[in-house]
Amino acid sequence: MLLIASLLAHSSLADIIKVGDGHPYSSVKEGLEAAAPFDTVLLADQTFYEINLRIEKPLTLTGTHQSIIDGELQDEILVIAADSVVVSGITIQNVGYSFIKDRAGIRVEEKDYAIIENCRLFNTFFGIYLQKSNHTIVRGNLIEGSDGSTETYTGNAIHLWYCEEALIEDNITRFHRDGIYLEFVNHSQVNRNVSFRNIRYGLHFMFSNHDDYTGNTFEDNGSGVAVMFSKWINMRHNKFINNWGSASFGLLLKEIYDGELSNNLFEDNTTAIHAEGANRILITQNIIRNNGWALKIMGNCFDNRITKNNFMGNNFNVATNSRQTMDTYEANYWDDYSGYDLDEDGFGDVPHRPVKLFAYIVERVPISIVMLRSLFIEMINVAEYIIPSLTPENLADSIPVLEPYQL
Amino acid sequence: MNKILKYGFLDLIRSNWLILYTAFYLIVSVGVLMANGDISKSVISLLNVIIILIPLIATLYGIIYYYNSRDYVEMLLAQPITRKSIFMGQFLGLSLSLSTSFVVGTLIPFVFFGVFRSAYLMHFLFLLIAGVFLTFIFCGLSYLLGLANDNKLKGFGLAILLWLFFAIVYDGVVVISLVKYEDYPLEKFTMLSTLINPIDLSRVFIMLKFDTAALFGYTGALFNKFFGSSLGVIVSVAALSLWSIIPTWLIVRTANKKDF
Amino acid sequence: MIRFEELSKSFGKLVVLDKVSATIPKGKIVAVLGPNGSGKTTLIKSLMGMVKPNAGQMYIGEQQINGQSNYRGTIDYLPQISRHPQNLTARELITMLEDIREQKGDARLFVDLFDLESHLDKHLHNLSGGTMQKVSIMLSLMFKNDILILDEPTNGLDPVAIIRLKDYLDEERKAGKTIIFTTHIIPLVEEIADEIIFLLEGHIYFQGSVSTLLSKENETNLERAIANVLLKTTSHE
């Protein structure tokens, strides 16, 4: 009788293994060992002090936010070492930092189809760490480092390394080094996340291709987003706000090709967009306002199209270190455009040259920024505008619009 | 001294020029407030106006006032009061009346616009403080030029040169030096050259209150320290005070030696 | 009594006063005469502390006054050209001077003397030159101090006003005041001066009564006597 019952129990497709005081299994480790593939391990509302938990079967680990696994600042906590594992709803906290090993709250170790959702991770050195794992979903998690930590002592909130087709969405990250970090990650989506007050970047791409990030908010990070050595990255409907520190930027584009940057909002950043070796990027329909520099575009950028953006209230709209440009500027709104529109077609009749001489000087001698708003500077700006001598002559918007776009 | 100051002030405050000057600030302040619809931006717009115009008006008005009041001063010299009282009184009366014009002219529109309830009250106060300092400094310098030059034409010419120098030429020399010596460490030089020119100093002092200061911090550790802490405010106010005190002291010194 | 001791003043290379010593007794009217540039105004301005002498001392009574300011409270001084804050009225200036000097002035006396009542509340820039001079005289003399110093007091005055001023000065002398004035109008000197100080090229050429000068120059007419002096000095050169 007992034998049959137990056989039945084990043979049913998805058992629920309850773990906690008063349940058959008092530790997560025991629960995970006892579980069969496709079972659900359900944690009670209590704190489990455990580390190095390996999930080696395709199962679901779940609980409530009061189901806490606490690593007591020792080694890492949860390692997913099987395909199709789901971790959801639980809280993971206190992973000790290490200089030799990237310890994480949850690590997916070269396995595919993991889903990590609605979890909370507090004070984990790295938060969620995916290595060589494909088709992963990381969704709705809250990942917080410890406030006041320095870059040295914290890792990234969501870290992806050699992954394909990941879906990272609706997460909130803060107080980590990078909010979301992707290295060698292709065909992935990063949507609707909020990264704020991270020490380095809100979102960071390295060597990653064919990825999209859409609808995210990057606020008050060391810098907003860095996209480096990557191709075919689409960046749409994001907000880059208040990345306002001495060397901060909203978005860094470095050695990247063939992307699109559209419908984003850049506001109150030291530099909204810093482009270095950026090529064939379409920059369109963005609102770029109240930044120190709206667009810093270095001479090694080619064939970018900057069109239909609103440039408003920035100290410098465009700055460059080059006397030539290979980029196209067309039909943008520039708040410092002083031309006219006699034929009333909505486009200014004279081209607008958005690089001020002062921007050029500051690019060469950064410290001369201290002369900002000096009468002398205003005078040479006007002189240069009329007779260009140092600023790139062909960097001009031939059909600037007179009214800002409604974006 | 107080009596001289009082009468000088009363005389000046009733003059048409000063009424015009007040009206100018009323109109400009109302104008920028209406155009920007926002106190912070209006303060920045006014910054551009005041760092150029206050020195210019103070310089011109100072030298004109000195020459126009020469005979009045001779009358005062016959009275049983010291030269220090006379000239300090005159200079302070002049500076105070111009400052009053400026403060009244800008304060009224900003108060109506609710500056006291806004988050930018300090920004506005910094603007007022810088404006008053600039008034005193350039009144002092031009009054001193008048005192040192009995030839009106020469005094007037020098006063205009003085303004041109501090408002434009000086910055030109600094910027050109920065570009020319771009390979050298320039932070201390730049810092010092900013402190030396009262117009640059006021400009930077006002911008200390704005986010723009972060753009300055970006250029080096010294700047970062200066613009990122209260150190900047303390040093600026100290330098502006020094700039106000030195011409005043020179006025008294020159006046004491001068034959009328 | 006013005393100068070896008073010297030069402006650059130009020596204006060269060791000038003189004593001006109390209760006399003394006219300081001399051609243009002879140092009349410089002498007076030195006394008033407006010009700083290079060397020498000045005394009023026993008090040395070089570099002092309080003594000016005992002097009524009318400068050669006196202008005042133009946006104030004469009445305000009276109050102002009373306030500055902390003395009470007898303005009424001069308002009556020069018929100024109707001008008291006008801004000064609305007054004519003559009226302005009358106002200046009022503002200078109303404190009724024991020493009066007047630099070209009759400038711009009409004959009636000159006579009234003359009478006034005469009365003040009778009251024991010391009066020093400069002028180009010789008859005025003949009429009221007890003594003449004649300055020539920074030196005192002559100090004494009108009659002494006349006899020294062998003339009966003061204007001629002065012309003689001037001719002699120019022929010396």
CATH class category of the largest domain in chain A: Mainly Beta
Helix and strand run of chain B: HHHHHHHHHHHH
Outline the biggest β-sheet of chain A. Answer: 14 strands, parallel
| Strand order, largest beta sheet of chain A | 1-2-5-8-11-14-17-20-23-26-29-32-35-38
The overall pLDDT of chain A, averaged over residues, is 91
Assembly level: heterotrimer
In percent terms, what proportion of residues of chain A is strand? 35-45%
Biggest chain pair interface = A-B, 27 and 36 residues
CATH superfamily grouping of the largest domain in chain A = Single-stranded right-handed beta-helix, Pectin lyase-like
Assess the beta-strand content of chain B as a share of residues.
Answer: under 5%
Radius of gyration of chain A: 26 Å
SS elements, strand count of chain B: 0
Number of helices of chain A: 4
* Separation of the first and last Cα atoms of chain B: 19 Å
Sequence stretches where pLDDT stays below 50 over 5 or more residues of chain B? none
What is the number of beta strands of chain A?
39
- Per CATH, which architecture of the largest domain in chain A? 3 Solenoid
Helix content of chain B: over 70%
- What's the CATH topology name of the largest domain in chain A? Pectate Lyase C-like
Structure class of chain B? mainly alpha
In DSSP terms (H or I, runs of 4 or more residues), the helix count of chain B works out at 12
Describe the 3D structure.
- The complex is a heterotrimer of chains A (407), B (260) and C (237).
- Chain A is mainly β.
- Chain A folds into three domains: 1-221, Pectate Lyase C-like (3 Solenoid), CATH 2.160.20; 242-355 and 392-407; 357-391, no CATH class.
- Chain A has a 14-stranded parallel sheet, with helices on one face.
- In chain A, helix 2 (28-34) links the parallel strand 1 (16-19) and strand 2 (40-43).
- Chain A is elongated, with a radius of gyration of 26 Å.
- Chain B is mainly alpha-helical.
- With 237 residues, chain C is α/β, with parallel strands linked by helices.
- Helix content of chain C is 37%, strand content 25%.
- Chain C is built from eight helices and ten strands.
- In chain C, helix 3 (107-114) packs antiparallel against helix 4.
- Chains in contact: A-B, B-C.
- The A-B interface holds A 244-247, 268, 270, 292, 313, 315, 361, 364-380 and B 41, 47-48, 51-52, 167-169, 171-172, 174-175, 178-179, 182, 186-187, 190, 194, 199-200, 203-204, 207, 211-212, 214-220, 223-224, 228.
